[in-house]
Amino acid sequence: MENLAGKNRGKNGANTNYWLGGIAAAFLGLGAFFLANGRGHAVAQPNIPLVDPKFIATTPWRETYADMVKANEDLSDYDCYGCHERKNPPPIRYDANQKIIIPKEHADIVMAHGAHDRNNLCYNCHNEQNLLTLQVRDGREIKFDNIPQLCGSCHGPTLRDWEAGAHGRTSGYWNRSLGGIQRLSCANCHNPHSPRIPTREPAPGPYPLRGPSPASANPETSP
Amino acid sequence: MTRRNFLRGAAAVSGLTALAASLSPLLELSDFTNVDQFMQKYYKELTPDEMAKVLKRIEGEVQRQYGIRPHVRDYKPMDGVEFVYCLNLTRCIGCRKCVHACVAENNQSRNPEIQYIRVLKLPHGSLDMDKADHNYAPAAVPEPGFFYMPVQCQQCKNPPCVKVCPVHATWQETDGITVIDYSWCIGCRYCEAACPYFARRFNFADPEIPKNRLNPNMSYLGNRPRKRGVMEKCHFCIQRTRAGRYPACVEVCPVGARKFGNILDPESEVSYILREKRIFIQLKEEMGTSPRFFYYFDV
Question: ipTM of this predicted complex?
Fold first, then answer.
């Protein structure tokens, strides 16, 4: 072995020890850097507000007359013969354009059952002989706690679906041997005078992992 | 010092330094696994006694973390039951109540947000997912000219996620639910890549559940709180359905668009729908996954 001590020079002038020392120092420095910066930096998380509990509530949209009776609520507003006379059904009035005139006592009613004002007669459903009940066109008298039979007298396929559990929400037990179910009546969702389901506010959309929640980003579907 | 010794020393020191630097994530390790958790056997090999011990341990962990003692059960599938889901696209109004009811029922992380259900807003006349809007936020739904399609795990009969899991942490049970054992999942996310429906969610960070919104009725394969690094997905509310009840999304849907039940029971709603209705869609049918989710229209 040739003696290189004191000169640090290889055959071709390479400063081997300096190189080795430099590389080792570089690695040590890199190691120190990794140790110091190895901790993950917390990414600023977006502030995602908790959802409003109204979006997980299961209460039906409407309360029917039968619900109110069951809950022993104040029914004085629904006492028809408090204002009307027995044996004297109130006449239905129409204006010059064949549009029904809603009397001011019933101003909260908006008649929109059937397109083109087809269902424009109160006594199509309400029983003029007994205002406390309803009637079907074939002459049957329907009580207010048995509404589906009235609605189903015209909306047959929907009634069939509802009776099978396929129309409207069914809650409770799918396994009927373990528990019961709760069904809703037609008027729990549909206003009988304007049954089309109104539009309502949706719950907030999804938040991505990073960054703000994008507003409707797809131009093809944004209005 | 000889060159050889210097080289040996330098290699040793730099190797040790590199090792120390690579171990730096240990500095962040907050929830190192305890012995019981580490030595837990595969779910299908646990005896009932061992499972009882596991459930007790989980109850203790949840109590320590959230201050609420939950009830963690291991529900087994019922005989003669195969679950099927029917979703009425004529009725869905896109209110997203199902999304949030699911989150509340199944103890999903609120931040970062995990939601098993994603509601797509599609224009009338097409099922082209490229036209789907995930982030619609109008003042009122439904908007004219669009329909809404909520998508969650389709619990496929031929699940690609089960095929690709390298550790069998996910499998399909006899009642049709594809389940995940959160204690066995290694977080490789192969299943997320394999799923055509974006059903699988990954916990990229420690899940955050507000204490006052924790659902204490838990099941081992269902809604017990997960930890960072494992997959989760819709499991048909296994803690509810295996006790005979409807999933949370069915219970909350205000228009009754969601129907769930046992297809082997000819008197269930889902059997009625599959018999009587005429137009059915299974998403991405051509992929051969045979999903248990039937979207239909009311015509």
Answer: 0.85
